[in-house]
């Protein structure tokens, strides 16, 4: 049984077209009628104004001389029934409110009745002889004949249009049945074949151009559905392999997370060890200072005095290393942002990285534009960023056969301080430059890095309203980060 029948589609289309056309005809007729009303009203006002001027000229002298015969003759001549626009009533009163003339046409007994009739406008004129007020003339005028004539014509046009519309709608319905419903039923056959998973290409004949396009589209859809079904079967067979690969990725990610946790634990342990070393070191420093103060009293030989001086220097060196290690291993997120000296921070960083750098025969050079530079922030976090960047540089060039070097340059650039960490490497490959700042991405060997250093460092610098980026314009491998500069704090005396 066909789904599309003449009682469903063609009838609905016919009724829709009929309703739309009828509505359009009614709308146009209404607009025309309202336009005619507006035009008639304006025309009536103009006619009333012209009649008023004529009446003033015609009645001024008769009213001034109380010529009743002339007044009635002029008044009666104005009350002539016309087909479209005419005066329906006229009333003349003296300045003492006595009525000289009052008359209407077509059984209108008084001016009061005339002004209540539809399509009527009134006008009252005060008549003067020179500067003396002599009478009041009231005029009622209508264009009812004009309005009724137009309304009758529009009504006739509307009835004829609707009758023609009914006739045309039947012809349209017959046309729909022949040119639309039957071809659509053919299209439905193709749809039923698709529902039954029959993807053979069949071109229906005798279709209009538009429906022939639909038929082609259905054939293309059938071909695409068949191809996608085959693809689904392929991906279903390959799904196990994809799951295994994803599982391996997750296990690798878990391994990196565990390594990160181990590093955090090592950091806590390093802080504890540094604390334990610091206590006996304080005692040693105390006794060395006493010995230094009394070396003359004890009459120490020169070799012993030199040894005391060397031990004292080593104790200070160890104390600085412990201080830097404790700062580096703790979380500085909770620290307040306070002013700190750039030079002092870099000295602490140098103590932490110097041993690793020297052990690999790497030349390390530091240059600072202005030794009074101050920044505001968490000094511990900024030092952690520098240690990470320098450590990465060491790891990158450690196996290089050429001369190995690292430079740290600090430049004063107006409101900002620029830090340049450069090593003797030849730069980072272009394909990796966008990835190096991502969490867990690393180019180091297994268990040599977590891929978190640059990501965390970038977050720290951005939290300090600066930027951390790789400089792809440098001949060597170079990272740059910035901090806001503040004026050096003058210590009070």
UniProtKB/TrEMBL annotation:
GO MF annotation terms: phosphorelay sensor kinase activity
> Sorted alphabetically, which SMART domains does this protein's record hold?
HATPase_c (SM00387), HisKA (SM00388)
Q: What EC class is this? A: transferase
Instruction: Name the domain of life.
Output: Bacteria
Any one GO CC term of this protein is: membrane
Q: What is its main location?
A: membrane
The UniProt keywords, alphabetically, are: Kinase, Phosphoprotein, Transferase
| Kinase among keywords | yes
Q: Where in the cell is it found?
A: Membrane
Report the EC code(s) recorded for this entry. 2.7.13.3
Q: Which PANTHER family match?
A: SENSOR HISTIDINE KINASE
Q: What is the protein name stated in its UniProt record?
A: histidine kinase
